[in-house]
Specification:
The chain is about 70% helix and about 0% strand.
């Protein structure tokens, strides 16, 4: 697939920006860069037009200025001296700190504590990351409630402390609401738990929740067919189910067939025996009930052929022996 730009009646140019730098840039930084490139007047009169731009893209003026400093520090744009001469980007990069608005936190093997903000600290975070106001609004829509200040700070703490993007946070909120846990304290707890498991991106979260739904559905069906009732699965049984669904990727009809083979062989519903059956089918490369049944028919045909051959050989030797005895009697 090829992609083409539709320039229409106008176009603008941007300097090359590395993938690494783009990954460090936040939404405000990217919005500002596009605006500066597409509106020449904004470059000429930034100080005059910045307040209006900040309102249009829904960020604070301080957040916009912070985004400007990010690109200056990166050497992508430059400022002008008081005498009207331009300060080279590489010279500016020495004096301006390259501090992205959404810099990723250092990866930790385990979360111990999320940041807690004083009033001033929280104000500075919101100024630095003006786009968080959009996340807060969307989060309230997902949970169907208006956050108080404590809940708002907690949501920002989850986003900032774990370095999670908006898509991840909103997806997690939707999941928590779905399971009847629509409160920020529970969201905080499960967000830290998922982070510790290495589920740190929206794609990883989506895959994890999809797999969890599959397992929950499979467990309900397997519980009924094996007659387990309401008791909890043992750790070994949970592993069996996880392997059947996520590793072997068998559908329920294949598992049901393994159950039937188990009962026919042992006269009782044994998950351990069924696991051995499914392991062998997986090793043989079977993927469906059809694959299993074709194999059974083939093996049955081979056995019948072997039995027929055995009977024919026996008949041959019996006939030969009888013939020999007959000749002996005649000769005698």
């Amino acid at each position: 697939m090829k992609i083409y730009f539709e320039y229409g009646r106008s176009a603008f140019a941007l300097p090359a920006v590395s993938k690494k730098l783009l990954a460090r840039a936040g939404k405000t930084e990217l919005k500002l860069l596009v605006c500066l490139a597409s509106v020449p007047e904004l470059c000429e009169k930034y100080d005059e037009l910045a307040d209006g731009l900040a309102q249009e893209i829904k960020v604070s003026r301080s957040a916009l200025d912070s985004a400007l400093s990010f690109w200056i520090g990166a050497g992508i744009i430059s400022k002008e001296r008081d005498d009207g001469t331009a300060i080279p980007a590489e010279e500016t990069a020495v004096s301006e700190k390259l501090v992205p608005a959404e810099e990723e936190p250092p990866k930790r093997s385990r979360v111990t504590e999320l940041p807690q903000y004083t009033g001033d600290e929280f104000t500075k975070v919101m100024e630095r990351r003006g786009e968080l106001s959009g996340l807060i609004e969307e989060a309230q829509n997902v949970l169907g409630k208006v956050f108080n200040i404590t809940e708002t700070q907690l949501l920002v703490s989850i986003s900032e402390g774990l370095g999670l993007d908006d898509e991840y946070v909103l997806g997690l909120l939707a999941y928590c609401k779905q399971i009847g846990k629509a409160n920020l304290r529970y969201v905080e707890k499960i967000a830290c738990s998922f982070y510790d498991k290495g589920i740190c991106t929206a794609k990883q979260l989506e895959e994890y929740l999809r797999t969890a739904d599959m397992l929950a559905s499979a467990e309900s069906k397997i519980r009924k067919i094996f007659g387990i009732g309401d008791r909890a699965f043992t750790s070994k049984e949970s592993k069996y189910i996880n392997d059947w669904i996520t590793v072997y990727k068998f559908d329920f009809e294949v598992i049901k067939l393994a159950y039937e083979d188990t009962v026919n062989a042992t006269s009782k519903p044994s998950m351990s025996y069924a696991n051995k059956v499914l392991e062998s089918w997986f090793a043989e490369g079977y993927k469906s009930v059809s694959d299993v049944e074709k194999s059974k028919e083939k093996k049955k045909g081979s056995r019948e052929s072997a039995q027929a051959t055995s009977f024919n050989v026996d008949d041959f030797f019996n006939a030969a022996i009888n013939k020999g005895f007959g000749e002996d009697k005649q000769g005698g």
